[in-house]
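Appendix C. Worked example: 2-hydroxyacid dehydrogenase
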Amino acid sequence: MDIVAFGVQADERPFLEKAFAGRHQVRSVDVFLNRDTAPIARGYEIVSSSVNADLSADVLQTLAAGGTKMIAQRSTGFNNIDLRAAADLGMTIGRVSRYSPYAVAEFAWALALAVNRGIVRATNRTRNFDFRLDGLMGRDLRGRTAGVLGTGKIGAAFTRIAHGFGMNLLGWDLVESPRCTELGMKYVARERLFAEADLITLHVPLVEATRHLVDAAALAAMKDDAILINSGRGGLVDAAALVDALKAGRLAGVGLDVYEEEAGLFYFDKSLDIINDDTLARLMTFGNVLVTSHQAYFTEDAVGQIVEATVANVEDYLTGRTNENMLVTRGQLPATAQ
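Step 2, the predicted output written as structure tokens:
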């Protein structure tokens, strides 16, 4: 079976091609799947997409018209896929329901430590042989409070690290995690978490109920010297409201690995382009804001697990089996999604 994989990063390609070797022929392309690139998939029954793919109804229709019947997305999130349209077209949609939670949790901590201790600002200075400490004072984390929104596998991994730092733990989720409560986490209303936490991190899925979870009201409730970290989905944070809060001199630091309008920007070299996104451009001007390019998941361990799950999804589709990764199976949505 010939497969076309969209949005394949250079470091990811060897993992993908090795995993499919001896099974199927994979054509890896570095462009992302959207309405302009969808015609590339003509003639391919199976398409593999990446996290920033546009799989809205019109793109799915183009794929289906070209013969695509199965999409294997190489990510956990699927807010970019119109599942109802996929079902109406008789497609099968698979994703990767889990991979190393440590990859994302550890990266979230890298962001938190970097903004707390001014690592990027310090590095930029020392490259110019400026060794002053002005503006680089951070805070001990021990004894301060970490607020974790979303305590699934990633949130729990983040919590274990916070516990190792000796932090007090507040959590917010629909279901309490025994792993977190054993570490001393106290579950509270999110309004209280926003008001009391010194470090706030987001690990919830992006659904309608969580879009702009961190909005102007949430930001107003936070401490003036709080640190906000988002390594989940960009839409969890109202970026315009965040800019307003930063302009007002609030928040000690912000670490963003994701951005709500990142499609078309992240994973591309835009260094010679004029950036028309005024909100992102303004965020970049704050010395206490660190923006990375949706790379929290990008470790050898996590990518290897993502690719293995993708191969399993393809094999199950071809043999008529289903698994927990299937969001749509030959035009059938799970009962919970209907």
